[in-house]
Amino acid sequence: MTERRTLATTLAAAAVAALLSPALSAAPAHAASVATWDKVAQCESGGNWSINTGTHYGGLQFSASTWRAFGGEAYAPYAHQATKTEQILIAEKVLAGQGEGAWPRCGPAAGLGADDADPFPAPLPEAAPVSAVGDLTGDGKPDVLARAGTGSGSLYVYPGLGNGRFGTRIDNGSWAGIAQVSGTGDVTGDGHADVLAVEKASGKLYVYPGRSDGRLGHRVDNGGGWNGMRIAGTPDLDGDGRGDLVAVESATGRLLLYPGANDGHFGARLTIGTNWDSMSLVAGAGDLTGDGNNDVVAVEKATGKLFVYPGTGNGGLGSRIESGTNWDSINSVSGAGDYTGDGIHDLIARQSDGRLFVYPGTGSGKLGTRIDNGSGWNFS
Fold it and tell me: Which residues form the signal peptide (predicted)?
């Protein structure tokens, strides 16, 4: 603690001096990845981003004077009251001015000075949507949706062949005005899987009824306000036999469940999780754990790990299962059933370079050796 009190005084004085004398701010700027900041926080506070020791605050253990001097009060009076992202943004300013020595013990131990990564880089342009979907072609096998990212934005249905591969695509016309596309279970009560879509201009959510010929029926309007959501369909998360919708609310990070109402609409939403803005990808999946309930999958931003969240059969989620690493190279993931013909539900994933893979499920929340379906699936 003595080291921290000395650090706080030094940092506060240096910050004020830098404001008075530009020449003092000529030290080279630095930045660090979220993963490295997590290491610093683990060392400083046990990774507790909301800790308040009475003299130091937050995951990176700011003193009150340092937090103020580097502009932290724009977010919250004390660091522990700010979000993890906001704490890191202020820490970046401290790092730029003082280097890793601002955290004398934990900074060097975490390699803070050697990491020049931007913790929050501007996102790359989003590739056109690809999504697993149930059987839209009437052959009893789940299919894949893919929308072109250029030209008319054609939406294609790729029939699943039951061996981890796909047949000749079926063109469903221009979808250039659509921002998000996701397959879901039967929301319209006709026995066919359906398709969800959010319109760019209006923010409206539409349900497109599936048929049995790879085509879609007349859409059902579910109203606006959906541009602030990351949507994903699910075959059935609450156990009532109808397709549902899960969504991450951008403003709050909450994971919301919208139960399908059997007429192309949805019932009152339920909050089933918080802090899901820490996930880069969230999607509905079939039953990956072999318990008869459909699950949710997510890729964690900070670690790139893939997690399977087992559905409880009533809309809730159980304890997550780590199912893979290095999934930060994936920009689309979803599941809708058995793509390989072995009776076990699988995952569809597209890599950032445009390669599409089928990951066979094992029935335990883990995945088998992936099947490569070639490149070109970014459609941009």
Answer: 1-31
